[in-house]
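Researcher: Before we compare anything, I want clean individual predictions. No alignment, no superposition, just each chain on its own. First chain goes here; please echo the sequence and then give the structure tokens.
Model: Echoing the first chain and its structure:
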Amino acid sequence: MKIKILTFAVIAMIMMSFTSDKPAYMLFDKNGKKVKYEKMIKALNRADVVFIGESHNNPISHWAEYEITKDLFKIHKGGLILGAEMFEADNQLIINEYLKGYFAAKKFEADARLWPNYKTDYKPLMTFAKDSSIKFIATNIPRRYANIVFKEGFDGLNKLSDEAKKYIAPLPPEYDLKVKCYTDMIEMGKQMGDTNLYFPKAQAIKDATMAYFINKNMEKGKLFIHYNGSYHSDNHEGIVWYLKKLKPNLKILTVSTVEQKNINELEEDNKNLADYIFAVPESMTKTY
């Protein structure tokens, strides 16, 4: 009897410790059901392309990107190819040269157009690719060309040289305002008094270009992991929509990060954003 009482006391203490924990995240499937990280990894391993949608200044997003990549590398026998929104297509040569060890990281960081948070948030991924002999693809349109679309629409890109167009998806890109993410951008602009209808087109040319370079660099048997802002892949829209246009039969899975006041349950508005969703406390420290 004393043993049973002691056992129940230990269980009670453990349960009390669980309720007093302050977890950094909870992981859910698209329906809002809590899932184990290992189960997600097994599912992602069976995909052709995995999109990890991040909140750019959320440390859990960046930690998850690295951990998912590392763990998929361990178990995916065909190997990985990495790609990211944060690197522009005309920087592919310098990335390739750096990964081959032609020059030191300091030189790469000086010559490449890197995001301000590269060293804390993306350098670990680039270093992992280098150490593991993995290709890293710069998928995004050069920002100077996206800016042309923002000001002039798709037609503004016609003035570019054939050399410049090598870094952009074939023109003109398909553009469908029935795709919710673009419609939402127009509505958001109207609410802010901005009537620039080219704004969502600038987003679309980024999505189309990223899908184009993902498709161009895929290899049979290899899993392509792509890192991007969650808005580019949430709801299987954005890049995912364009990639499915190119290859309808691809198995694509998405991961996203959301911030909530209470992470014990996934809020209704955050369900179905992605196949797997990291819910992070709103109070989480930001990387910038």
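Researcher: Okay. Second chain, same rules.
Model: Second chain and its structure:
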Amino acid sequence: MNCLVTAGPTYEPLDQVRRLTNASTGRLGVELANDLADRGHVVSLLLGALASWAGPCRANHIERFTTVADLQQRLQQQAGKPVGAVFHAAAVSDFRFGRVFEQPTPGELRVLETAKHPTRAGVLLAELVPTPKVIAKLRTWFPEAFLAGWKFEVDGTRHGVIQRCQDQLRDCNTDVCVANGPAYGPGYGIVSPGGNVVHAADAAELYAQLERRLHSR
């Protein structure tokens, strides 16, 4: 089967020098791509340019992405191709920078237009603008594919994370949502529509469970 995997972080520029990103290494997505390739699937990997994981990568095809807009464009370019499954494990930034302001006098805000915002300007104020939800567009681009999304949550309880996974499944019409992060606790939860949750104790079990879903559709 032709499988498409996204992995690693996006970044969003503050100016021409500085960036907003996250701590994703890309390891989980790369290892998932390796597992799928080892099981005989043809794997295309979209990997964040800032992914720091330096382990082996056995995907058949690799492309690097940068911003959310760049990742979205590269996914959309795959639409119409015979993609049987999409595993959207990339850590997509929820925000991009909007306008950046300096405060020359109390109560006054002035938009900065510099290519590199100077530290001599003192405290700056930056707008954070929500980015488009890439996962919400996957069903439109890949109407017949198996779609797997992720929910990495830091705050809350395992029950709350599972509920947010169910929200993603409903809102994005995906087939499974993988729950992980400190709020979920050790291991991974594979959440299906209807509230069914299968726990995977480690990454290897997660990969096997996800690949098994491809044969049970």
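Researcher: What stands out in the second chain?
Model: The domain at 2-93+133-215 is CATH 3.40.50.10300 (Rossmann fold). Additionally, Residues 158-172 form the longest helix (15 residues).
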